[in-house]
Amino acid sequence: MKPLSALLTKPLYKILLGGGALLSTITYASAQTSGFFVGALVGAMAPNNNFSYSYENAQVWGNENGNWTNSNFISSGNAKQNTFSTNLNYGVRLGYVLALNNYNAFRLYGKYSAGQYAIGTDISGAQYQGVQQESFFAHQLGAGIDYMLSFSAKSNAWGLFVGGGYEYWLGEVYDNLKNLQSISYETSLNNHFPYVNIGLTKAFGSGMVSVEIGYRHYFNTMYSGKFDTTSWREQAHSELRGDIKTDYTAKPSMSFYAALNVKF
What we know:
Blueprint: H1 4-9, H2 12-28, E1 35-64, E2 67-84, E3 87-99, E4 104-121, E5 132-150, E6 158-170, H3 172-182, E7 185-189, E8 192-204, E9 209-218, E10 223-235, E11 238-263
Antiparallel strand pairs: 1-2, 1-3, 1-11, 3-4, 4-5, 5-6, 6-8, 7-10, 8-9, 9-11, 10-11
């Protein structure tokens, strides 16, 4: 180590340049840092409602000028109808990033989100008016863990994350599903949903603020049940009448979202 007298005789600008280079190196190598973070999320949930029905000794009826008439007879058959819709979802999360080095880290978090969610309705009684959906409010409480990879050591680097978690759902959507459960048979009702997610991140400035876009895929079926009806109205002027059994399943298949995260 050089004595202090040698440093004092060194030109000041060289000392400043050397210190600046050191600080530059420290700032550059800070893509992943440990710390707590808080985030806000907004996204689109895609409910998946599947309807299938089988029938025996059924007749097709048509409506012309308000008069229903029998058009032909069908001994047996089956059909399916699948519907997708998009519902807005928003939420917050709080967690901790554990950095292993400048490029690799793990993120643990808890989250709360909420929004409208579409389910099938009017699948009871003597007549089912085709595939109808109605949106009800749902709350999601969850926790997850992600592996995070930065593409460079810069503090404002792009990165990738992949991980999974668990959500518990509740709210008025389940009140309405319980109503369906009370008038159906061979039913199951579930509000526990594991998921996997993947996405991209982009940090800004010193890396304390970042944004991300992600895709989340859910597992488990929310609801399934069977219904007995005597008619199925396929269109405004067409109806199937007879011994009809309807199967209905609902599941939260996927979600796309964007998030803003701030470390502290």
